[in-house]
Amino acid sequence: MVHVKDTLAKRCVALGQGEVNLRSCLQVLKQHGHTGVLSLETEGEFAADQGQPLIEASRTYLVQTVAEI
Asked: What b/e readout covers 19-53, taking b as 16+ CB neighbours within 10 angstroms?
């Protein structure tokens, strides 16, 4: 299992909106034959109604990016 997280100035943001080069990280995993789980990691700083859009945007980014690489 690999935890996937993105941050901007030490703050958790939706995947693809921060400073982490997630596409390159996912490409390395693919090149090395990773077939396990990718687990979205977020911080507990959000109320449920605030966290849901972050989770949905992150899932969309992750699914699209994995399909592209």
From this structure: ebebeeebeebeeeeeeeebebebeeeeeeeeeee
